[in-house]
Design brief:
This protein is of the alpha+beta class. It has seven helices and nine strands.
């Protein structure tokens, strides 16, 4: 009986010695702000400590996307993960088979890491999840390591949306003033209201994409459509001035230049903000849009004053023309 017990114990020990053990985790949460993702795989009971006797295979949803053949010193990477590589090839012999790859290539799902050392093998599994920008757990406040924040501050995002809509309202207000005050020019340049309509539609779509909850890439696209198409406003402003003035005055050009300066500031802020995660530079975009809004407000006052002059000058000219004709007849 003792012999049977000893044989069973040796069999158990022998079986255990062929199993590689891992420092495993149940799940890994990646931050959408990170450029790269590290998939953990750490063996804690290697014996040979030589990567030439190891074989490593990484699988996603049971499909191999990365492998390393130790005896041949050969790598395999699926075309969907060209950036995948060991966290440290030098530390592979120490049991660290963790993988690093670009964030965009690390799609959510179930991952497994299989390691073989001579006749010993083992496997660890975990689930990779992406933390959405606004999916913070209110019951568990985030720690400095586990940050939970969106790329663009929600308050600043709302301010930008309000400023853009305010600029659009001012643009339509100028067009309305011209239509009401300048009877002789309201039928001209029909492309101006069409352009205003197109810009309005683009701005509304941009605001929806920018302030909605969701992937950071969508918010970045929304910010791009919020800032970049605003360059149309300078062309629209020039066209609006031409509707009430035959020759734009120095004040008109100064207002267009002021608006252009604000647009340049907004574009610079966009370039600085879209590459930062989380972004703290939206204030530059806000500053640029504030300058544009002030320029549009001043332009509205300018258009109103010019349209009144135009409206008063038109009837006088209409009266003067018959008088001139009468004088011509009398001279004859």
């Amino acid at each position: 009986m003792w012999l049977l017990a000893a044989g069973a114990l040796l069999a158990v020990l022998g079986t255990g010695s062929t199993q590689l053990m891992f420092s495993g985790v149940a799940s890994v949460v990646k931050d959408a702000c990170n450029d790269t993702v590290v998939l953990p795989c750490i063996v804690i009971n290697l014996k040979e400590n030589n990567d030439s006797s190891m074989y490593v295979s990484w699988k996603r949803e049971e499909r191999v996307f990365f492998s390393f053949d130790g005896p041949e010193q050969r790598f395999y990477r699926h075309e969907s993960v060209p950036s995948a590589n060991f966290l440290s090839k030098r530390d592979l012999s120490k049991g660290i088979a963790s993988l690093r790859l670009k964030n965009a290539e690390a799609t959510d799902g179930n991952y497994s890491c299989e390691v073989t050392e001579l006749n010993r093998e083992g496997q660890t599994k975990f689930e990779l999840k992406t933390r959405m920008v606004d999916s913070c757990d209110e019951e568990k406040p985030p720690t400095p390591v586990d940050k939970c924040e969106r790329q663009f501050d929600i308050v600043q995002s709302i301010v930008i949306a309000v400023l853009l809509l305010f600029i659009i309202v001012l643009c339509w207000a100028q067009l309305g003033v011209i239509a009401l005050k300048c009877e002789t020019v309201r039928k001209k340049k029909k492309h101006v209201p069409v352009a205003c309509s197109i810009f309005t539609v683009i701005a509304i779509i941009a605001v929806v994409l920018f302030i909605q909850d969701g992937a950071i890439s969508m918010n970045q696209i929304g910010l791009a459509f919020t800032v970049l198409p605003a360059g149309m406003l300078m062309v629209l402003q020039y066209s609006l001035f031409k509707m009430v003035l035959d020759d734009i005055t120095h004040k008109g050009y100064a207002l267009i230049s002021f608006q252009t300066a604000g647009y340049i500031v907004a574009v610079v802020g966009f370039a600085l903000s879209v590459s930062a995660c989380p972004s703290v530079l939206l204030s530059v975009v806000i500053a640029g849009l504030v300058v544009m809004a002030v320029a549009d407000l001043l332009a509205l006052v300018y258009v109103y004053s010019c349209s009144r002059m135009k409206d008063h000058q038109t009837p006088r000219k209409a009266v003067e023309e018959p008088l001139n004709d009468t004088k011509g007849v009398m001279l004859e």
